[in-house]
Amino acid sequence: MEQLVAPWRIEWVERDDSASAEADEGCVFCRLPERGDDRETLVVARSAHAFVLLNNYPYNPGHAMVIPYDHAGDYRALDDATLLDHARLKQRTFDAIEDALGPDAFNAGLNLGGPAGGSVADHLHTHVVPRWEGDTNFMPVVSGTKVIVEAVEETYDRVHEAFAAQSDATVTETGAVRVDFD
Ligand SMILES: [Zn+2]
């Protein structure tokens, strides 16, 4: 299966019809964290410069994306504060998914530029994909998207709970877990 070679090359698809209707109104990764309902939009955690969004069409349960708030497509253009914050939020995301879902391994990576496979090429996002031994054996590929056995809302709640249990974590008014770093 092609996805096994580069499992982070997964097209991110709009979550529902209302989101699709708004697709013309600018960058989805700029809009979703501004929507105000983090569970609905699947924003599960936030830091000072980045946020964690669960993929609505995940490769595996817990497939997340760590995304700087800044609308930037060039990783090399990120300032130091954003780079460090984004990296630390990735570490916290590994922790949260590990605690919530107990994967055997992770794939993590960036698609930079449209030809690399990214569907939102002008707003960079790091995919974090938990992997299990044998996870390719029971989940068939349908139209390029894996069939996921766990509803994404249930995954959201489990990962959210794991983030909330981390140090210096608080639940925000919009629902996501705010994490701060020393
Ligand atoms: Zn954007």
Automatic annotation (TrEMBL):
InterPro entries: AP-4-A_phosphorylase (IPR052908), FHIT (IPR039383), HIT-like (IPR011146), HIT-like_sf (IPR036265). Residues 28-138 form the HIT domain. The keyword Protease does not apply. Signal peptide: none annotated. A motif (Histidine triad motif) lies at residues 123-127. GO terms for molecular function: nucleotide binding. Keywords: Nucleotide-binding. It comes from the Archaea. PANTHER family: AP-4-A PHOSPHORYLASE (PTHR42997:SF1), HIT FAMILY HYDROLASE (PTHR42997). This is HIT family protein.
